[in-house]
Amino acid sequence: MSTTTAALDLHSPYPLTADQIARFRRDGFVKLKDVLSADVLAHYGKIITDEVHRLNTMHLPLEQRDTYSKAFLQVINIWTKNDTVKEFCWSQRLGRIAAQLLGVDGVRMYHDQALYKEPNGGITPWHADQYYWPLSNANSVTAWIPLQKTTQEMGPLAFAAGSHQFEMGRDLVISDESEQRIGRSMKDHNYPLVDEPFDLGEVSFHYGWTFHRAGPNTSTQPRAVMTIIYIEDGIRLIEPNTKARQGDRAAFASDVEVGAVMNGKMTPVIYPTPGLV
């Protein structure tokens, strides 16, 4: 597959239905089949994987890591280091889905993030992403994009359906404590757990406040996943009131004033992008 053909496949509209949008807003997440083709995933997946290996800074053996570091190899903002990965992150197909699900006219990218759960890698504890994000409203969504078919043994992403409306636990960093406390709250308040494999080409989208986790990777194959976090075009930077949010502000919004629209150099408009729609 040529780069040109792959790129075109990234920008054609996905036929999102009213029912899928309604389920996303009700459950806080939605899983969509056949969002990306096998050829697109093979073409960009190899390049993303090469960049993860090049940029990864975690080299301790698994048994010497803490719970967070056992969960995955994490590489952020690859789009700033590789033009082909940038092309993937600028996908109008993915950006349009994000905007439609949120019900907004346009979205910016907050950042990209590769999450590679190694063979024998541990759990990803219960958490909500927006704990880390100094954003003025809840119009944020993560696209979780497996670069291969993801079996149950590989540790697919799992969601507590409807938990984006639940506020207890939002102050917990991803940790052993969050796994125990949030997991117990989800059971106590009867939020259904949706923990299922991902077919090749299947992509999930979840709100920033949706509680989610992943099991360990008990397979012999790395669970290679690329994520893209989208925010409403017009969302504002709030005062970062935790160390985690201060770190995010420094990484992704150092050129944005508190109270101003998140329109800095690290949060570009993804959809609609002139010339790509």
UniProtKB/TrEMBL annotation:
Which GO molecular function entries does the Swiss-Prot or TrEMBL record give?
2-oxoglutarate-dependent dioxygenase activity; iron ion binding
Instruction: Give the record's keywords alphabetically.
Output: Dioxygenase, Oxidoreductase
Q: Which InterPro entries match?
A: Phytyl_CoA_dOase-like
- Pfam families attached here? PhyH
Protein name listed in UniProt:
Phytanoyl-CoA dioxygenase family protein
User: In which organism is this protein found?
Assistant: Horticoccus luteus
